[in-house]
Amino acid sequence: MEWSANGYRVLIADDDVNVHQSLNAYFRKEGFQPALSAYDGEEAVRLTRSASPNMVLMDIMMPRMDGLMACREIRKESGVPIIMLTAKGEEIDKLLGLELGADDYITKPFSPREVVARIKAVLRRIHESRETPKENQLTIGNLSINLGSFIVKLGDDIIPCTPKEIEILWALASSPGMVFSREHLLQSIWGYEYLGDTRAVDSHIKRIRAKLCREGNAFDIKTVWGVGYRFEISGG
């Protein structure tokens, strides 16, 4: 059955009323549930916790708590996909957002059509990963990855990971010893050209390593300088 946006709900966190109105019009046209609206970072964190949206669209510049801090707070307890909205030229904010756990970013001014297309691409990939019949369980030493339930375990501990982190980890761990270029990971995980910006991959790898790569593990994620990354199994 073809994927549909019906039943999915997005949280829009932005202090600009026009952003909410323009995006909601497109969401309704595409079949999404009416969007949840937050006009400051604190409200965004509260609504993410209480309403469990399928996606969060987060502006960086907001009152009471900015989008970067809100992203950090959400990531303490949720792996919900987060797309950051950044003003043109805010390169440091883009990088910080990715390192704090954002899955993607879109630069303002943006086209509502582009935003909806990005959101649909992320939600469709998550849906297909869960619904497509295939071998979706991978175990390497004390590491267990379940692509169907989007659960990663290290020993008996569930390690909170975002969908993008899990997809990257799965891609690497499924082919130990193979070198994956940053460009290949961008195209296969994000599903589109990323304007040559490979920092998204580097930031996600950094977060995966911080969560999973520990002394005594049977695996590691190695950097192949000038190329990309390789998943290595001890003794392999």
Search tags:
236 residues, Rossmann fold, single chain, 2 domains, Arc Repressor Mutant, subunit A, globular, five-stranded parallel beta sheet, alpha/beta
Can you walk me through this structure?
By secondary structure, the protein is an alpha/beta fold. It is 42% helix and 22% strand. It has 2 domains: 10-130, Response regulator (Rossmann fold), CATH 3.40.50; 135-233, Winged helix-like DNA-binding domain superfamily/Winged helix DNA-binding domain (Arc Repressor Mutant, subunit A), CATH 1.10.10. The protein has helices spanning 17-30, 41-51, 67-75, 91-99, 112-131, 163-174, 182-190, 199-212, and strands at 10-13, 36-38, 55-59, 82-87, 104-108, 137-140, 143-146, 151-154, 157-158, 179-181, 219-224, 228-233. The chain has a 5-stranded parallel sheet, sandwiched between helices. Helix 1 (17-30) crosses helix 5 (112-131) and helix 2 packs parallel to helix 3. The termini are far apart.
